[in-house]
Amino acid sequence: MKAPALTGMLEEIRWGLSRPQKELPSKYFYDTRGSELFEAITELPEYYPTRTETSLLKTPVAGWVTEMAPASLVELGAGSARKTRILLAAMGHGISGRTRQPTRKRTYAPVDVAGDFLRATAESLKVEDPSLDVRPQVRDITWDLDFVDELPAPILFALLGSTIGNFAGEAAGELLSNVRSAMGENDLFLVGADLRPGPGKSIERLEAAYNDAQGVTADFNLNMLRALNRDAGTDFDLTAFRHRAFYDEGEGRIEMHLVAEADQEVQVPGAGVVQIREGESIRTELSCKYDRSVLTGLFEAASLDMVKWCTDADGLYAMALVSPM
Ligand code: AVJ
Questions:
Q1: Any atom of ligand 1 within 6 Å of the Cβ of 287
Q2: Which of 269, 198, 276, 202 is nearest to 237 (CA)?
Q3: What is the distance between the alpha carbons of residues 110 and 126, in angstroms, rounded to a whole number?
Q4: Whose CA is nearest to atom 14 of ligand 1?
Q5: Which of 28, 29, 38 has most ligand 1 atoms within 8 Å of CB, for mutation?
Q6: CB of 34 closer than 6 A to ligand 1?
Q7: Pairing mode of beta strands 72-76, 106-112
Q8: How many CA atoms lie within 13 A of 14 on its CB side?
Q9: Element (H, E) at 16
């Protein structure tokens, strides 16, 4: 791993483990194994966000996209792009929509930190559809989106999978403003968001999505320690931590933690030994949940106007389409 990335990684680890509530950035879930474990999570019976979003993308979102007829799609946190194919198909079809062959030239720029996974996804898309111009961007989605200047307009930006949930408080506003500053006047921005419990959605159902019976989410959570041991030179003992995920109603978010099963010492290069007491936890993820008014407030603060909104019948998940104010 290149020195600057390692330095940045070690700094983030040292800082996170020095906090009163120890924490580690959730982006370190997504090494190749972690990305594969996350793909497995999206197939779980308990994990409703992916399949609910997929059905909303098919109807009504695909219709929104065909109506907009964007020339380019910029997807932040693309992962496997499985859902993206629905958007690309909706972009491909001119007004007719009948022909199987895409009638329009389209450009797709997936953005993700998981370089190997992203390149593999890009290759498979090119094979599937040689007419698609694929331009993968290996970078953190909070970084400057200057590459969009090279893309044919209008551009549809997409932040799917409730990835916005990982950006608590100000961070969500900064992420939205970052996209807003890259948008031209005819561009649009599609956001998928997991909703807070409500009449059709119990806290139990929400918590089950992060505590699946097969333990895949627990493996995904623990795998972060495996990745840090390999890439940052720490020596976490994976057998000495257990997975915990719960919904914090006050904050409106799911929290994922790794709880120490015994007192232990962890070697962190450049920080020496970090003491972790039995029962103490390391927070590995915040997954914020929203409702329409909270999201509208976030959009307006980033000078974005809600153009379209839809949810599934149970109010589990929502999709919002926003334009520059
Ligand atoms: C990819 C951040 C949307 O928070 O639901 C899945 C990641 N964490 N199971 C989410 C995740 C535990 C997921 N996001």
A1: yes
A2: 276
A3: 13
A4: 163
A5: 38
A6: no
A7: parallel
A8: 13
A9: helix 3-17
Ligand 1 pocket member 166 (CB < 6 A): yes
Query: Nearest C-alpha to atom 1 of ligand 1 is from which residue?
Result: 163
Q: What is the pLDDT of residues 198-225, one digit of tens each?
A: 999 999 999 999 999 999 999 999 999 9
pLDDT per residue over 64-107, tens digit each? 999 999 999 999 987 777 789 999 999 975 444 444 455 578 99
Distance 101 CA to ligand 1 centre (A): 34
Torsion of CA 125, 192, 169, 247, to 10 degrees: -110
Cis amide linkage into residue 154, ω under 30° from 0: yes
Gap between the Cα atoms of 202 and 11, Å rounded: 39
What SS3 class is residue 317?
Answer: strand
Residues 176, 298 contacting (CB under 8 angstroms): yes
For residue 213, give both structure tokens: 């019976």
CB-CB contact of 78 with 118 (8 Å): yes
